[in-house]
Amino acid sequence: MADALDLLIYLDESLTKNLNSLVIDGYIEKRTSKFIEDRTLSAKTGNEGSNQHYGEDRCVRDERDGYKGKNFTEADTITTSNKDNQYLEGKRYVRREEELTRIYSVAKKLNSVYAMQKYIVKLGDKLNVHGFVPKSDLDNFKNTFESIDGVKLEVLPATSDVRLEPPTRLKNSWFARPFRMFVEMYGVPRYNDVDPTLLVAISYTLLFGIMFGDLGQGIILSLVGLVAEKKFNLKLGGVGVRLGISSAIFGVFFGSFFGNEEILSEYFKGFSFFNAMSPENTMTLLMAAIGLGIVLILVSMTFNIILNFKKKNMGEAILSQNGLCGVTFYVAVISAALGMLTGQHFVNIFYILILIVLPLILMFLKEPLIRKLEEHGEMFPNGFGAFFVEGFFELFEVCLSYFSNTLSFVRIGAFAVSHAAMMQV
């Protein structure tokens, strides 16, 4: 996280008057012209036809004595009619609108003045402007303002005025910079807080490589991420590059190239690959995943302790589940479990009372002790009975969270095994 400095700037009254005349007075005039064109084109074509046929055949015969007569009549009428219709129509509508708007700067001036009030103090004929600037830009900033007549610059520590909170400017390395967006999704850390971006980058990259270790797929993912970052300026592309590199490295460790576990053995002769699908390696992989989870949990708890000590929250730093008592209890239980698995019996009554029971009691009494020692209030304002019931279930939930959070890292090994199995289908 980049360091910052407080800057206190003194301006002469004559200079402030000029600034007022330039910035505050007057109005802003905006003229907007709109040109809208609508075009309509319609067409119609048709073909009408009719065919009518009428025929008649008539015969009359007259027979009398000595006379025969015959009349025959035939009529045939045909009527044919065809009609073609074509219609084409084009319309063009043009509308021109002009909007003239006057926006007075009074509202903007009042809003700017209100926002600047906490940074500006007027003492006699002097106007003090308080601000922040990174240390890397301090020299250029000083040269710019000290060259102006009537301006005096004074450099103070960033935390010199407790009424103002210094801004945060994250400064990360090449490796961790793309992962900053994940941290900013939850909010930017304060000026005196620890920047967790590097921890997020390392843990994210490491866990992804273990779960999806494959040399060929890792190279493809890195190339796709590189194109997305350079050509389309996608921040997620930089993340893909780093995840692909991690996947490729663990792919060499697992001996997997697009799911084939025989190709790399020809080029890395004498190297013993870790076959994730081998039954004898399954338990090793799962236990290693749990061990990695324990390390990450302890690192996170250490971060929490350091932050609380920096903020002088002694009660949270010592008595909370993520404080010193929580770390002591967690490490003691993990060490006892490892001792039982390895056959080393070092747990005794003093170990249990000092490293397990005592931290539990202190975590149970955290809120009453903080009220008594830091706030100088009553330990049990609502009575001990109500506190005991609520505190007991909270402590039970804390112990359960230790177990569940640790065991949840088994999924890392399970993902590695399932990924290797899917590649063989």
The span between the termini is: 47 Å
Q: Helical element count? A: 15
Overall mean pLDDT: 79
The secondary-structure element order is EHEEHEEHEHHHHHHHHHHHH
List low-confidence stretches: 5-33, 93-102
Strand content: 15-25%
Report the strand count. 6
Helical fraction equals 40-55%
Q: Radius of gyration in whole Å, from Cα?
A: 42 Å
Question: Which secondary-structure class do the elements indicate?
Answer: alpha+beta
Largest sheet: 4 strands, antiparallel
Description:
The chain is an alpha+beta fold and 425 residues long. It contains 15 helices and six strands. It has helices at residues 13-23, 106-116, 138-146, 180-186, 197-211, 215-230, 235-254, 263-267, 279-310, 314-319, 324-342, 349-364, 366-373, 384-407, 410-423; strands at residues 4-12, 27-64, 67-104, 120-123, 126-134, 152-157. The strands form two sheets. A four-stranded antiparallel β-sheet has the order 4-5-1-6. Strands 2-3 form a two-stranded antiparallel ribbon. The chain starts with a strand and ends with a helix.
